[in-house]
Design brief:
5-stranded mixed β-sheet, about 475 residues, Nucleotidyltransferase, domain 5, 13 helices, 17 strands, alpha+beta, single chain
């Protein structure tokens, strides 16, 4: 797995620089340039730098590109809006008004330098589409797809913003000038708004740095105002005479010692290369996403799709995996259901055979076979106990038991004497005498309480102190209790 390194590429007019950074430390560098007799362009530089990075086996997860000021233009533009999203939607029209020409073939990036109730002051950068296409297509052919393309002065601004605190006294505005082998960059620090780019300028091959700085500083100070507290200068060649510069400009002038002692500075000195060029590449690699959001030319031209494509690919495979998992899970559940249904049907068929075998006359299972079997068991026990006959009705023995129970209840109170009991299939006849007519009625009521059947009684007049009776009971065909 690749380490979380970031690769910064800086493309000048005739030179290119690559700095690989891991957690702020420089872990690899490449610097190359076209000789005076060599012909080349951005495609050549991009091809060479990509080949060098491949040969050195740089490990990185993101690539950022910084363009030299020779490849873009900087404009001061005023916007009516203060939100970056609103400005981004209208900055192209505002820029066309300033440059008074069509910019449809230019990519636009911007930086908000100051905002108030009336809008925002912007630094707008415009780069030609053809230049950007050369870099992108060449790098992509070498499997390098930059996540962003930034102006070089924007990368330097971020580095200065992070490191300037030890050099600036609170409450003072200052100018910072950084000089590479080919370019000069003016930045402005304002306690209220931070560090912002002012302008860049080209240096000739045989230039007296101090004289150039005097001229360019006067021009810059005139454009930003005369209330600058001091000027901080760093030159790659170290040829700035700060005392002379201070006398000529009338402001304090000091060096930037931290710029050379920084990680990129130490590496550039070790490689005997341009410190400012290393700083630009380093800044491109380390610039935060929020800080570089509006400075990115790729947001306006050939937007970066790498993360989006990787995300879409990951989501695609995640969806496929989830679908396969759901199908497998569903297939397993369905297989379990079919197996359970098969087992249930087998048990049901076995139970049907057993049920119809022990329940004569039954051809299929009822809704609740257990309840029906329990009912049949109770009936069998009632028949075995004599409480029911084989037809399911109360047995003769059961009926006689009820009659005897009624006789026992009334025997002593009524002076009951039974002469004869005749038991037929549907009737029971009882004849006898009682001590009185009231006793005779009491026996009749006792029989009715036993719920044997319909009772009719015939009684004669008393003879010899006894009340005769003849009772006929038409028994009920009742089934045992469930």
């Amino acid at each position: 797995m690749e380490s979380q390194n970031a690769l910064g590429l800086y493309f000048g007019k005739t030179q290119a620089t690559a700095v690989c950074v891991n957690k702020g430390a420089v872990v690899g560098t490449v610097a190359l340039s076209l000789e005076a007799n060599q012909k080349g362009d951005l495609q050549t530089l991009a091809h060479w730098i990509a080949e060098q990075c491949k040969e050195l086996n740089f490990k990185y997860t993101e690539v950022s590109v910084a363009l030299d000021s020779a490849w873009f233009m900087q404009h001061s533009v005023r916007s009516e809006f203060t939100q970056a999203r609103q400005i981004g939607a209208t900055v192209r029209f505002d820029t066309e008004e300033v440059v008074a020409s069509d910019i449809s073939n230019l990519a636009v990036a911007f930086e908000i330098t100051k905002s108030d109730d009336h809008g925002s002051a912007l630094n707008v950068f415009t780069a030609d589409h053809s230049s950007l296409s050369q870099i992108l297509l060449t790098l992509q052919s070498h499997a390098l797809d930059p996540i962003r393309i930034l102006p070089d002065i924007g990368c330097l601004t971020d580095l200065v913003q992070k490191n300037l605190d030890t050099d600036v006294q609170s409450g003072h505005c200052v100018l910072i000038c950084l000089i590479s082998q080919t370019n000069g960059y003016f930045l402005k620090y304002d306690p209220a708004t931070g560090v912002h780019p002012v302008r860049a300028f080209l240096l000739g091959s045989h230039t007296h740095i101090t004289e150039v700085l005097v001229r360019e500083s006067f021009t810059t100070m005139a454009s930003v105002g005369s209330n600058q507290g001091s000027l901080f200068v760093y030159s790659t060649n170290g040829q700035v005479e700060t005392d002379v510069l201070s006398q000529r400009l009338g402001v304090p002038v000091a060096q930037l010692p931290w710029f050379e002692s920084s990680p990129w500075g130490q590496q550039a000195l070790s490689d005997e290369q341009d410190v400012v060029a290393y700083a630009v590449a380093y800044g491109a690699a380390t610039l935060s996403v929020d800080a570089g959001l509006t400075l990115d030319f790729r947001r306006d031209f050939m937007p970066y799709q790498g993360k989006k494509m990787r995300f879409q690919s990951a989501m695609k495979w995640a969806c496929i995996s989830a679908t396969l998992l759901i199908l497998a899970w569903g297939g397993r559940l369905q297989a379990n259901w079919f197996q359970a249904k098969s087992d249930c049907n087998a048990l049901k068929d076995s139970l049907r055979d057993d049920y119809t075998r022990v329940m004569p006359g039954k051809k299929d299972l009822p809704k609740n076979p257990v309840r029906e079997l329990e009912r049949a068991i109770r009936e069998i026990k009632n028949v075995q106990g004599g409480r029911l006959d084989l037809g399911g009705n109360q047995s003769t023995l059961a009926k006689l038991t009820l009659v005897l129970k009624a006789i026992n209840q009334c025997y002593q109170p009524t002076g009951l004497e039974i002469d004869r009991v005749n038991i037929a299939l549907a009737t029971i006849s009882i004849s006898g005498t009682a001590a009185s007519t009231a006793g005779r009625l009491q026996f009749q009521n006792a029989l009715k309480d036993q719920n044997i059947g319909d009772i009719t009684m015939q009684g004669g007049s008393e003879k010899n102190g006894r009340a005769p009776f003849s009772i006929s009971i038409k028994t009920q065909a009742s089934r045992g209790n469930d």
